[in-house]
Design brief:
Elements lengths: L2 H16 L10 H16 L8 H16 L5 H5 L3 E7 L4 E5 L2 E4 L7 H12 L12 E5 L5 E5 L9 E5 L8 H7 L4 H12 L4 E5 L5 H9 L8 E5 L11 E5 L13 H8 L6 E4 L6 H10 L6 E5 L3 H14 L6 H11 L2 E7 L5 E13 L2 E15 L5 E7 L8 H5 L13
Helix pairs in contact: 1-2, 2-3, 10-12, 11-12
């Protein structure tokens, strides 16, 4: 009997008779292993089903990984050096390791096995994927982010993208050790968090901006009422007084959707001292800026943009999408009166992630938001292997909002901004 057929029979018998084990949450490997072994032994006890001991153990181990973990990708999930897993159908599994994307030799037995892993991932959540809702985003219990999209939208078969949560990145020291920023930049950003500056973190997908937000938000006071608003709950703050809100997709009848903007407007009635907006995508940009103007200081938010200038263009477009009749000049005045800082983060060609610019908003210039870099990453050389060499530098600009540090009892010497 072919191994695939035998393995499939054991899988089918397990799902039919013992799937209740899987609904306990994290399935116990010992219990799963015992059940799988018993099913396999029952099948092998029948005539004409010979199998070598090595093959027997291989089937058992693979099915235990599948039922109690993530099947063929279980070892990838456990590898601390792998930051992203990309499954493009059953036979194309890629990973990002040390900033480089690599193809693995891992394969799924069938679309059915891959769909089983998808259902296993979705089990603890309120999300689903089927023909009526063929894609979704979720967050795993460990903080890893998952996007799933299935046929007919995904032509190569069920597709999963997992951005793993890195437990080793906890505080600013970890970011410094990784080379994401230097000590002066870290001290400045921590002071901005404690001094309640309003900050937008910008960057492309995979640049590390959400990780940076999570690290820096740990410096918010434990007694401050903090509300996070996200499409998929990813931020896990350690403080006591945290309220986590997550959007809701529409049901099968197309009703019941709750958007970021809906949650943001409700948040303003919840007496927040801090608001963290997982990502600005649309008309909620105007609501956020107006909230910042009305005394909700220390707000943090994320936006997809390649430069601080692009952040301004995107905010302008999103505010226009709100339907509120505003001139471009009025929009820029709103931005200037609300926002203090843009933190730009990028993934460089060698895979490393850097905060490449920390840029302040300093009034209007010719009717346009005046942007000034305070710190930046100067790329000095890229060798033939793509390795990037450079240094973090200060421009010598002292932020116009520097006085808020003293008013809020945050010590930050001006020497931090001395020009390199």
């Amino acid at each position: 009997m072919a191994q695939l057929t035998l393995k499939g029979r054991v899988r089918e018998a397990f799902i039919v008779k013992y799937s209740s084990i899987l609904f306990k949450g994290a399935a116990n490997k010992t219990e799963v292993s015992s059940v799988v072994r018993n099913i396999l032994e029952g099948i092998l006890s029948q005539p004409r089903n010979p199998i070598k001991e090595l093959e027997r153990e291989k089937i058992i181990n693979e099915l235990v990984d599948e039922f109690s973990g993530f099947g063929p990708i279980e070892k990838l999930m456990m590898d601390p050096d792998i930051t992203e897993i990309m499954i493009n159908g059953t036979h194309n599994v890629y990973v990002e390791k040390y900033g480089k994307k690599l193809r693995t030799d891992i394969k799924f037995d069938s679309d059915q096995q891959l769909m089983y892993v998808i259902q296993k991932i979705l089990l603890p959540t309120r999300r689903r994927v089927d023909e009526s809702v063929p894609y979704t985003d979720i967050c795993l219990p460990d903080g890893s982010r998952v996007n799933i999209i299935i046929p007919p939208l995904a032509l190569n078969g069920p597709t999963i993208t997992i951005r793993k949560f890195l437990k080793k990145i906890i505080n600013a020291e970890d970011l410094i050790n990784l080379g994401t920023l230097d000590r002066r930049m870290a001290d400045f950003l921590i002071a901005c968090i404690k001094g309640k500056a309003n900050i937008i973190f910008a960057g492309a997908t995979g640049s590390g901006k959400t990780t940076t937000v999570g690290v820096l938000s740990s410096y918010i006071g434990n007694d401050e009422r903090t509300i996070t608003i996200e499409d998929t709950a990813e931020l896990h703050l350690a403080q006591d007084h945290v309220v986590r809100l997550e959007t809701k997709i529409s049901n099968i009848e197309g009703k019941g959707e709750v958007t970021i903007r809906d949650l943001f407007l409700n948040t303003l009635r919840m007496r927040p001292q801090r608001i963290i907006l997982g990502e600005i995508r649309s008309a909620e940009a105007l609501d956020m800026l107006q909230a910042m103007c009305s005394g909700h200081n220390g707000a943090l938010s994320v936006i997809h943009a390649d430069t601080p200038e692009d952040v301004m263009y995107r905010l302008e477009t999103m505010i226009l999408m709100s339907g509120v009749p505003l001139t471009l000049e009025a929009i820029h005045r709103q931005i200037v009166s609300s926002l203090h800082l843009v933190v730009q983060q990028d993934q460089l060609v060698d895979g490393t992630r850097k905060i490449t610019r920390i840029t302040q908003i300093n009034g209007l210039k010719d009717g346009w938001v005046n942007l000034e870099d305070i710190f930046y990453y100067d790329i000095e050389h890229v060798d033939q292997d793509g390795k990037v060499s450079g240094h973090f530098k200060a421009t010598g600009v002292v932020p116009v909002f520097y006085p808020i540090f003293g008013k809020r009892g945050v010590a930050l010497p001006k020497e931090v901004f001395n020009k390199d």
